[in-house]
Amino acid sequence: MSNIPLIDQTFLCIVNTKSTALVSVSLSYIFNGKYPLVFEFDNLTTADNDKDVDDLDIHHISRNRGRKFNIILRNTIKLLEGIENVLLIGLTKEQISYLNFLDDFNVIEINEMDDVDFLLSPFTTNTGKVKFNDNNLLNSYNHALQNKAILEYDRFSDNNFEINIDYSKKDLLFVEETGFVNSLIGINYGISAGFQVIILPKLDFNKKGLQNLIFDWKNGNINAYNQLHAIAYKNIDYINFYEFDLAVFFTEGYPYSLILNNIIPISQVHLNLSPDFLVFNNLYYENHHKFCTSVIFSPQHFNDDEEEVNVLVKKFEEENYFQFNLIGENATASNIDYTVQTFPFNILHFCSHGGEVKGYYCKGKFLDRFGDEHEVEYYEVPSIMPGKEEELVKVIIKNIFLKFDGLLWKSKELKALNYAHEVFVDMMNYVNDLEKKAQRDPIDSVPNSSAISCKYFNYQAIFDIMANFHSPMLVFNNTCWSNTNIKDSFIDCGTRNYIGTLWEINTDYAKNFSENFYSNIIDDEMNLLESFHSNINVGCEDKDLNIYIFWGLNISKFPKNIKKNDGKNRIQARLWHFINIYSNAMKNTTNEDTKASIKNMIKYMLREYREFLK
Fold first, then answer.
1. Distances (CA, A) of 541 to 201, 221, 222, 544
2. 3-state secondary structure of 9
3. Disulfide-capable partner of 133 in 157, 160, 498, 594 (CB 3.0 to 4.6 Å)?
4. Burial class (CB in 10 A: 0-12, 13-18, 19+), 3
5. What is the pTM of this model?
6. CA 432 to chain centre
7. Which carries the bigger pLDDT value, residue 13 or residue 610?
8. pLDDT tens-digit profile of 22-45?
């Protein structure tokens, strides 16, 4: 039986996402059965400097990624008490330059294997050694943690650790091998929570291809389902899942619950969408700082008796939740964009249409800074978001790239050409140039686009902050095709759990499932995954079987016994804190567009949240 593990605050580990072997050995020294605080940092192309966030040079994306990571990690540290030691494992000088809080801690830097034993042996109580080579790292790491041993590199090691399923341990946790540190996050959680941990080989698929297989299958191509099934089932077909109580999959995006028909409760954690913060947020917020707040979004595209909205509003009222609902005329793209970013909600529920939207097919040529000509093909998906009392209309454009110089985007063939980073910076400058001369043909449905239908226009959920820097318990996107790209920002920016749909859903089933789901977590006090599983496939037609998918862990429960007005002061303080932060940011930027954007956000908060700010 798995449990909710304690967080080990002996060390805060900030690690290079590509230094998997070095990180594995280091963690084997300090693992003590609790969940270790490990946060992965992507490689960067430049050190931090005084450039404005909106300066569009070749390091723009890298610099913004480094600054964002520093802010999120700094906010995370503020939640914790008693941390004294920070481990920097495999970090470059460029990465370290962004971490502006290190002077407050005892910092230990580990840059190579010889550093590990010298610096960490005084802290370890683990005995015994497990040898590993380049081909069996994850299985060796898993074995070492289970046996309280330390890892030792030996390129001649022949350990293979054959998988022997223990049917007496009823909770399974699977981790796909990626070659990066994100796989270690899954193992750390699994071992500390008491799961039986099983390593899966890296899957051969891409996100667009996976979505296309689901689309083709739902349009009658049974061979598409066979291909979808064949991608992963061979790695788990030897397990009798009926003998187990629970399965959690750390995956790069494969829908295991679909091919396993949800025969037991199944949750999934996306390895490419900040799994380190997702696990931490689940463990921490389950017992701390619960905002009893909700947002229900519905442009009322359906009749009242076809929507769950009225039932949910009443349920949250009965639980004394603070509600900021966007319903009917208020369910605009602008309102939901501001609300998602600024309101400290604990639950966000969407009731609307969703899926692919209109856009443009674009094709054009440009010269890079080296004088070479290139051709780029892409889809352009605009979202128009006029705001109340705003002089300018906000427009967000999502670009879905198809080909570069005739080669499929992100293909092995394109990567093999090893273009300079500057070439793609020049490509982005070309794509974003409104005066460029390019083919631009309108199309009714852009493949692999994803949006939520609003009262006016569409919402694509493109953002970097969510819920006022709070980690909400749940985003339930009860629209069609909501497991596509639209989920990414919600998960990557901090929601602990996300429920979406794998294809177009029947309206009646969507209403009944959501109402029963909330009834179970509120009235019956089930956790989110238990309620999800108890309602999946109940009362649905064959075409809707296994349509819902659950991203998150197996632990979140709906906060109960809330007194009326309990926590309003915390909500108020949170909102004013956010306003002050962005007021200072507006003063410190020289970019007029950024200033205008921040000003509009603050005006929205002062106008729409006035009942909370009193």
1. 34, 18, 18, 6
2. strand
3. 157
4. exposed
5. 0.95
6. 26
7. 13
8. 999 999 999 999 999 999 999 998
